[in-house]
């Protein structure tokens, strides 16, 4: 595909920044779209449109004149959002579309609503008639900070699986490689880093690097959290407890090495990621 204009939807989100930087380095013309995106978030100047994916006029303004759309959302209603985006994309002749999903998004895991929503968005993208790229990342190093609060570090529930932790910058590289590689469209790509660690192991390493004052990693039982969430009607806490309960039952899929390397296997290990932030 020629290096034409790409719209990044969800541009103010955690995973959009690395995509924006890498696509910019590759020479793509970018337009950034979200409710809170603003020029001060970026070093370089970009074509910026503030708006809501649930507002038809906002989407029309954002998509108009773009050749491709990259979707990186953390919406509570991904299904409706992606449906809106696809409708406007088709109307405006968009020629490529990419979506950030999750590594456990499969038919058999649809019993969990969050995954069911992700699965449905993937299906909409694949059935849109627009050539697509779907990315299924595992856990990101960048998420580790969420487990540190008020001088303490803890994980929710008991997670014993080892995950291929990955740097968000490597996701950005894979997205850019997909758009610049002939024949890469209409595929699902898993985004796995080179090393495997449990949640506790990873959080211990993170604290040694960034919070050396924290000597132990706590473990917060899920049942009390669910009760507190119910009594306080705290939707975020309820979702967090249910999400970690889900990961206590579902495993990161095993993916053949050849498939992981199709767009260049992510190579950033944790120590390299730490050095890039010190």
What does this structure look like?
The protein has 278 residues and is α/β, with parallel strands linked by helices. It contains ten helices and ten strands. The strands form two sheets. Strands 3-2-1-4-5-6-9 form a seven-stranded parallel β-sheet, with helices on both faces. Strand 5, helix 4 and strand 6 form a beta-alpha-beta unit. Helix 2 packs across helix 3.
CATH class identity of one domain: Alpha Beta
Query: Could you tell me the mean pLDDT?
Result: 92
Strand content: 15-25%
Number of helical elements: 10
Descriptive keywords:
Rossmann fold; three-stranded mixed beta sheet; alpha/beta; 10 strands; 17% strand; 278 residues; seven-stranded parallel beta sheet; 38% helix; globular
